Amino acid sequence: MFLYRIKQFNRGIWALIKGISDKEYQFVMKNLDEQELELFNSLTTYDRQHSIRVAKDVENIIISENIIGERKDILIKSALLHDIGKSKAKFFIIDRAILVLIRKLYGNKICSLNNNKIKVYYNHAYIGYEILKKLGLPDRVLFLVKNHHEEKINDYDLNILKFCDNKN
Known about the structure:
- With about 170 residues, this protein is an all-alpha fold.
- It has one domain: Hypothetical protein af1432 (Orthogonal Bundle), CATH 1.10.3210.
- About 70% of the residues lie in helices and about 0% in strands.
- It is built from 9 helices and no strands.
- It has helices spanning about 1-20, 20-30, 35-40, 45-65, 70-80, 95-105, 115-135, 140-145, 155-165.
- α4 (about 45-65) packs antiparallel against α5 (about 70-80) and α7 (about 115-135) runs antiparallel to α8.
- The longest helix is centred in the first third of the chain and has 20 residues, at about 45-65.
């Protein structure tokens, strides 16, 4: 876990330096409509890069498993928008590190603290679901976004999203 956090911190620093490439942005524009793109752009550079990496890994699984049609589109859209709830509070690299350390020290008690950043960080999946529901996205996208941190739900497409999210 420690090595994962170092890798995550390094990616955060690199995101600040590199930004989003034209090729990455074209991929996003190909898979999101105008309203969704506006939401996507409200994320921090780090969260946008993370979502693109997740979506590209989802796309690789889609190709290898020959998933086509609407299911393919829903999986990629869900991957790009899965962390959209984080747009309700800006998280910088140091914020993430502190939140992880505090949770290690105090466990899930941190989730009940009355602090907007903490609430958004630990409830971003549900917040994202609410945001996307207002836009009228398909129920399947809403389900995947809302449940991408749920361990108890066994759904093949959700497992693809969770696997790719955890990998990145």
